[in-house]
Amino acid sequence: MAIGTACYLAMLWVRALEKDDVTPKDGNILVTGAAGGVGSVAIAILAKLGYTVAASTGRAETHDYLRALGASEMIDRNTLSEAGKPFQKPRWAGVIDTVGSTTLGNALAQTNYGGAVAACGLAGGADLPTTVLPFILRGVTLAGVDSVFAPMAARQEAWNRMATDLPKDKLADMVEEVPLARVLDPAPQILAGQVRGRVIVDVNA
Ligand SMILES: NC(=O)c1ccc[n+]([C@@H]2O[C@H](COP(=O)([O-])OP(=O)(O)OC[C@H]3O[C@@H](n4cnc5c(N)ncnc54)[C@H](OP(=O)(O)O)[C@@H]3O)[C@@H](O)[C@H]2O)c1
């Protein structure tokens, strides 16, 4: 369960970037919602695959943790959640976005020519304020990624890739375990956005 849906989803995202031919030599990858469950594991997988990763987080106290997972640059998430210009200085070869809303709009506006943005999360909102400019002037691709109804072939490929591309030595740092009897304890932390990585419930304890 330390692997769980988060790692599976992160692997589908990495696959989406690769399908759009984004390789480590193309430039840096931005991961938003970096200290969350999916963001954390996406950073670890991308770093293992040789990508240079920038982590967008609102929590400065997670910087050491994110660096240990493989991120080499820290971005203050407030710089992405404020409404920005529709077309900005290009910075990212690819983006893995868990936040949505203005964060995703800014990420699109900052993506390099021919880059790809993989979107699946809405931690910051389900809206998407953007324009067609990144698409028609830079050929940016916005790829939706869904884990629930993904076809079996995509699932099998994602799980197979985990055997080789998931740095399992980093998993312990990304999870906190609680017994079933204390399942409600982390709820306030989750709602306050204070959980680092993921919480596993031990149903036998
Ligand atoms: N499409 C699918 O199949 C699928 C599957 C699983 C999950 N998801 C979605 O993916 C997203 C991430 O899931 P998760 O399990 O990683 O969630 P999570 O552990 O709660 O992490 C979300 C992270 O987003 C950031 N964040 C939270 N509120 C924000 C806000 N208002 N503005 C900007 N950033 C904010 C925080 O990162 P920092 O603390 O680092 O700033 C937080 O840790 C969720 O929206 C979830 O619904 C989709």
Give the arrangement of secondary structure elements.
Blueprint: H1 4-19, E1 29-32, H2 37-48, E2 53-57, H3 63-69, E3 71-76, H4 78-81, E4 92-97, H5 101-109, E5 111-119, H6 133-138, E6 141-144, H7 152-165, H8 171-174, E7 175-179, H9 187-191, E8 198-202
Parallel strand pairs: 1-2, 1-4, 2-3, 4-5, 5-6, 7-8
Helix pairs in contact: 1-2, 1-7
NADP nicotinamide-adenine-dinucleotide phosphate is lined by residues 5-6, 9, 33-39, 57-59, 77, 81, 98-99, 103, 120-124, 146-148, 193.
Write up what this structure looks like:
The protein has a domain at 4-144: Rossmann fold (3-Layer(aba) Sandwich). The protein is α/β, with parallel strands linked by helices. Helix 9 (187-191) links the parallel strand 7 and strand 8 (198-202). It has helices at residues 4-19, 37-48, 63-69, 78-81, 101-109, 133-138, 152-165, 171-174, 187-191, and strands spanning 29-32, 53-57, 71-76, 92-97, 111-119, 141-144, 175-179, 198-202. The strands form two sheets. A six-stranded parallel β-sheet has the order 3-2-1-4-5-6, with helices on both faces. A two-stranded parallel ribbon has the order 7-8. The two termini are 15 Å apart. NADP nicotinamide-adenine-dinucleotide phosphate (NAP) binds next to helix 1 and helix 2. NADP nicotinamide-adenine-dinucleotide phosphate is lined by residues 5-6, 9, 33-39, 57-59, 77, 81, 98-99, 103, 120-124, 146-148, 193.
Keywords for this entry:
9 helices, Rossmann fold, alpha/beta, two-stranded parallel ribbon, 6-stranded parallel β-sheet, 205 residues, binds NADP nicotinamide-adenine-dinucleotide phosphate
